[in-house]
Amino acid sequence: MESTPLGGIGGEGLGPFGTKAFTGESALAAVTGTISAIIGFMTVCAAVWFLINFVIGGFSWITAAGDKAKLQEAQSRLYNAFIGLVVVVAGWGILALAGQFFGYDIIVSDPATVIKQLQFK
What we know:
By secondary structure, this protein is an all-alpha fold. 65% of the residues lie in helices and 0% in strands.
């Protein structure tokens, strides 16, 4: 049986928390980069979810044909979609403000950095 040196197994470690923290990039920068990537992904998902609910609510409103219950359901869907989008945007703004207050770029101002982090080498 041939043994494999442990140094060659696993690559850089567990994503941004692997050996990057020991090669000059601080652990806090790795954590904030990961949080920023997650927040960006969740914001995009929330925007897509808003659009889907907005289209479904609008279609339900058009096809209600005078039925008060269907019209109320469509209005409720539109209202809830809009409130959800406002909450996500407000949360994003609060995190950006907190990042500026503490001096770390939690919300990435340049999306190209997130794309570069996600590319496999």
